[in-house]
Design a protein that fits this description.
alpha/beta; Rossmann fold; eight-stranded mixed sheet; elongated
Length: about 400
């Protein structure tokens, strides 16, 4: 597969801001459409001083959006429509002012408003004078948007329109396309059913207390988002979390391990199963339907019984799917993960260290991934980025298994 085919069928909003490099956006539209993407262009008023909206409309085949307070468009909430339509938002060129606005969450024009309203990934290709690029304010703004999961493409170093040389030059359109294609997951799982478990399970002791594992669900939801980008039918079975459902994903909410097990068992014809949930291994043997009152006793015993093993159940299916497990470990990560992979008959396992601020309730993670013939290390990054990288590995191993 060539790099550009990952853009086939993708819907891209191309944001063009006010830089002399805006003329290169025309070639970028042409390359994206040639790669199979549908492009809608959003221009700032300043951008229209460098290249005409008519040029961008002719190349994209779609009307160009410019004005946030357009009565006709905003009657239908135009910026919201664009934010929901897109699979990706690409801003090229992205000026220092545009980057500052994104970092501060300003909505002074249509482009910044739709960026604030969208839930899809955003990539930026900066273009500015080298002194503006190295300015501490710009670098601080870049750190903020990177922390929020936005992707930076470039810049390049070289001759600049001002006559100076240095970093801050917009990447050439071919380079932008190549880097964007590396970020976008290829639609290789179309017509496949992918099931993901996420979040914790809560095993009730009484109406107000429970036993459970620590999990925010962020990694599982990031996996669901990445999986949806591959074109798969994604079913997300999640324990109690406070996260929005990723676009294009069917969500099933459960509370206990038994409920999660039952929900998974009811799903037929699974092609890929990813067990990302932190499922409680045990549950209280007895549930008290009224709150247990505190007494003078210094100790209280709770008898526990084992919960159903969801991964093991999926492994025993007659039509066994490709199974990916997760292992959250405090030590001996490699040994424990490999042992779990063999014992539960998994095709792949992603392991991470937890404790001391690692793994739980944070936006970053690092993974060691193992399969029966190899392994890979995914260094610490935002969970959204890790999810895409892990999905690439899953696609590779899934293809290898089914072509063997």
């Amino acid at each position: 597969m060539t790099e550009q085919t990952s853009l086939a069928g993708k819907k891209i909003v191309l944001g063009v801001s006010g830089s002399i490099a805006a003329y290169k956006a025309a070639d970028l539209v042409r390359l994206c459409t040639k790669a199979g993407a549908e492009v809608k262009v959003v221009m700032t008023q300043a951008a229209s001083e460098f290249i005409t909206p008519l040029t961008m409309q002719t190349l994209s085949g779609n009307p160009v959006a410019m004005t946030l307070l357009d009565a006709d468009e905003e009657a239908a909430m135009g910026h919201i429509k664009l934010a929901r339509w897109a699979d990706w938002v690409l801003i090229a060129p992205a000026t220092a002012n545009t980057i500052a606005g994104l970092a501060q969450g300003r909505t002074e024009d249509l482009l910044s408003a739709l960026c604030l309203a969208t839930t899809v990934p955003i990539a930026l290709a900066p273009a500015m004078n080298n002194k503006m690029w190295t300015n501490k304010a710009t670098q601080a703004n870049l750190a903020v948007i990177a922390e929020r999961g936005m992707h930076l493409l470039g810049p390049a170093s070289g001759d600049q329109a001002c006559g100076e040389q240095g970093e801050g030059r917009l990447l050439e359109p071919e380079q932008i396309l190549a880097e964007l294609s590396q970020l976008v997951l290829p639609p290789k799982l179309a017509k496949k059913r992918l099931v993901i478990t996420a979040g914790p399970t809560h095993e009730p002791i009484d109406p107000v207390r429970f036993i459970g594992n620590r999990s925010s669900g962020k990694m599982g939801f990031a996996m669901a988002t990445a999986a949806a980008e591959t074109g798969a039918e994604v079913i997300l079975v999640t324990g109690p979390v406070h996260l929005a459902t990723p676009p294009g994903v069917t969500r099933i909410d459960v509370e206990t391990a038994s409920q999660m097990h039952e929900a998974v068992e009811k799903i037929e014809s699974i092609d890929i199963f990813i067990g990302c949930a932190a499922v409680a291994d045990y549950r209280p043997q007895q549930y008290h339907d009224k709150k247990i009152k505190k007494t003078a006793e210094k100790q209280r015993e709770i008898s526990l019984i084992e919960n159903p093993d969801i991964l093991a159940g999926v492994s025993q299916r007659k039509q066994k799917p490709f199974i990916v497990g997760f292992a959250a470990e405090t030590d001996n990560i490699t040994d424990y993960a490999k042992e779990k992979m063999v014992r539960k008959q998994l095709d792949m396992i992603a392991a991470n260290q937890v404790g001391k601020g690692l793994g739980f309730a944070v936006d970053t993670n690092a993974l060691q991934v193992f399969w029966h013939q190899g392994d890979a290390v995914l260094p610490q990054a935002l969970k959204s980025h890790l999810a895409r990288e892990l999905m690439r590995l899953i696609i590779e191993r899934y293809d290898a298994k089914n072509s063997a």
